[in-house]
Write a structure and sequence with these properties.
ABC transporter substrate-binding protein, alpha/beta, Solute-binding_3/MltF_N, single chain, signal, two-stranded antiparallel ribbon, 11 strands, D-Maltodextrin-Binding Protein, domain 2
């Protein structure tokens, strides 16, 4: 597995502002068929090979015709969230552990997985209409469960990231006066906004929240000095740190550990039950853990897939 992809994503983000449209970085609704065994590209960044997974007829039969009629499993993703979901060096091919899981689910269902790139905050509202599933490092919250059903499949904490040596002297217990970079629509954005409101309520210097549609922009803002700190899911933050040649470092320990889930339309219990069975099958037969180990993120593994879990942390 190559670790050049994050640098490529950063370069793509910066270049897009000067030379290309955002779509050139694969951030809008673009469908890609999941090969299930990596791309034919010359790039060495490849996913886990799921081509050997066989269709499970009993699980596939649980899906409603609304999902199976076109022979495709359409999955909405925000493709700047390495190592969960991002683009290869070719700028076109989706890779990451969420991509591999999506391809594996397609194999279990006997469907061709179609990854559709979209902005993070647009995915939940579009599940059930534009997408069969939303698989994009979605933290399960009670508020989100009011809008969609979730099947839990991973857990992650959150990490604050600063420039090496913390030159701005960021203190996460007092973020007043700081510029905080986050991705739009994330739990981390909510937390940053709460911190900013508290600064205002306490009469302290304002904290500025820089919210970006792309996760790569949040990291770039710290690298370039536009922001003092960025906040993201722990596997994403760790991957970003590893790809910036020592320019970034984690600030303190990871905060919390919350379950992430696959989003399914709120009124589609059939698909929720089918996805739960399929994910559990992949957990039980070892495929799920092999995918996570392939990307070095096995510390967030779950042993049980649940529909709308009551214990979120």
């Amino acid at each position: 597995m190559s670790f050049k992809a994050f640098k490529t994503a950063l370069a793509c983000t910066l270049s897009a502002a000067m030379l290309f449209s955002a779509a050139a970085c694969g951030t809008k609704d673009e469908a890609t068929s999941g090969s299930g065994s990596g791309s034919s590209s010359s790039s060495s960044t490849t996913g886990y090979d799921v081509s050997g997974i066989k269709k499970d007829a009993s699980i596939a039969a649980m899906l409603p015709k609304s999902v199976t009629k076109d022979g495709k499993l359409t999955v909405g993703m925000e493709l700047t969230y390495a190592p969960a979901e991002f683009l290869k060096e070719d700028g076109k091919t989706p890779v990451g552990y969420d991509v591999d899981l999506s391809n594996a689910l397609g194999k279990v269902f006997g469907l061709d997985t179609q990854i559709v790139s979209a902005s993070f905050d647009s995915i939940i509202p579009s599940v059930g209409s534009k997408y069969d599933l939303g698989i994009t490092s979605l933290t399960i919250t009670k508020e989100r469960m009011d809008a969609v059903n979730f099947v839990s499949y991973y857990k992650a904490g959150a990490t604050w990231v600063v420039k090496k040596g913390n030159p701005q002297k960021v203190d996460t217990s007092d973020l007043c006066g700081m510029k905080i970079a986050v991705q739009t629509g994330t739990v981390e954005e909510e937390d940053a906004n709460k911190a900013a409101k508290q600064c205002k309520a306490d009469g302290k210097k304002a904290a500025e929240v820089l919210s970006s549609k792309l996760q790569t922009d949040a990291a770039t803002n710290v690298v370039t000095g536009k922001a003092d700190v960025f906040y993201a899911d722990s596997p994403v933050a760790g991957y970003a740190i590893s790809q910036t040649d020592g320019q970034l470092e984690a600030l303190g320990k990871d905060e919390g550990s919350v379950k992430q889930g696959i989003a399914i339309a709120k009124d589609d219990d059939q698909t929720a039950k089918a996805v739960q069975k399929a994910v559990q099958k992949l957990m039980d037969d070892g495929t799920y853990m092999k995918i996570l180990k392939h990307w070095g993120v096995q510390s967030g593994a779950l042993s049980e897939a649940e529909i709308n879990p009551t214990e979120l942390s």
